[in-house]
TrEMBL record:
Pfam families: Pyr_redox_2 (PF07992), Pyr_redox_dim (PF02852). Gene3D superfamilies: FAD/NAD(P)-binding domain. The keyword Flavoprotein applies. Residues 5-315 form the FAD/NAD(P)-binding domain. Keywords: FAD, Flavoprotein, Oxidoreductase, Redox-active center. This is Flavoprotein oxidoreductase. InterPro entries: FAD-bd_OxRdtase, FAD/NAD-bd_sf, FAD/NAD-binding_dom, FAD/NAD-linked_Rdtase_dimer_sf, Pyr_nucl-diS_OxRdtase_dimer. Residues 340-442 form the Pyridine nucleotide-disulphide oxidoreductase dimerisation domain. Its cofactor is FAD.
Amino acid sequence: MAAERLVVIGGDAAGMSAASQARRLKGPDALEIVAFERGHFTSYSACGIPYWVGGDVEARDDLIARTPEEHRERDIDLRMRTEVTELDVAGQRVKALDRESGETYWTGFDKLVIATGARPVRPALPGMDAAGVHGVQTLDDGQALLDSLDALRSEGPRRAVVVGAGYIGVEMAEAMLKRGFEVTVLNRGEQPMATLDADMGRLVHEAMDGLGITTVNGAAVTKILTGPDGRVTEVATDARTYPADVVVLGIGVEPETGLARDAGLPVGPHGGLLTDLAMRVVGHDNIWAGGDCVEVLDLVAGRTRHIALGTHANKHGQVIGSNIGGGYGTFPGVVGTAVSKVCDLEIARTGLREKDARAVGLRYVTATIESTGRAGYYPGAKPMTVKMIAELRTGRLLGVQIVGRDGAAKRVDVAAVALTAGMTVEQMTALDLGYAPPFSPVWDPVLVAARKTVAAVRGAGS
């Protein structure tokens, strides 16, 4: 009996995790695996790119978990610099373009994994394709940015404009600052970090100002201006222009699902592919999808959303590979946990923001507290702000946001577990968390916030 053929589109986290897991469960005599990757690299940490650009990570290869050669040693036919340009669902085949030779050819499949990832949002504005304007989604993007920086003159002012103030934006602002650039962040929103409520975003803004990063809110970019050589010189908004030797786009990403859309596969309201709990594309028994190209269920809101994170992508790949290889796995959903930093300021969130709760019809109360990450008398104790959102009447935890220093961000994991378990804020006050003066006050900041939120729930009820 001939081996089944698994075709994987995309050679990063979800795609190669799926291929590797399927290979562990089925040998080459039972399952042939062909994977296509249009770039130069496989199985790398895109989340680490800002830290490589900023110099915290010394070498590009430090971000690579497994090379193409290592995948091939595991009997995976990995074809680099090869882009899938067409998907024939009915005919169970994909059309591929070898970017080096220009050759195109069709490859049939019995099972298919779509792991095409996400692409940086690049508004259709004049000058967006100019030299010196960079997105940072792939290792190729990161290398192109570094090459561009190396080409700049070393004398005189070096000015970087970052467009967008989400996770990518603030991380790239830090990277440019570390490389000695004068940094301006242009943000369309009310405050940086739109994944936080505006009152918490304001804390991020204040901290960025203190670091020497100029953040301009309510600044919508209208065009990129260039010099005679075609390279960026300024970034224009409705109000004024900002000089720039390099521009980094940190507006966010969107699912790379054009191939799937053209093939008639189902996509959700956020543009991502829709899958069942086994990560199988809805309505297609032999097609799976995972990573940044899919939508996932928000366990708190009860709706699908698009979240581009390597943690989810690797889990998706494990689930997909298990199911293809004859095992069993599911991905139940997420609570929306994310952490980031800008220099020594740590930023974390999980669950719903206030506007998210309103959007799904939930009534809620909030509480915000200020505490420290260690006992107040212990050397090095630094301030931390925690905001908690709970459902009116029931007290069910809905979301937590944390801004601070000295270990603030990872405290959000306690809230993520509580959200996943469906705990109330009153139940959270009894959690047996670790305590010693170097690590926490007697009442951990998350528990202090929970106690204050309990009081808000009771006050609203009365």
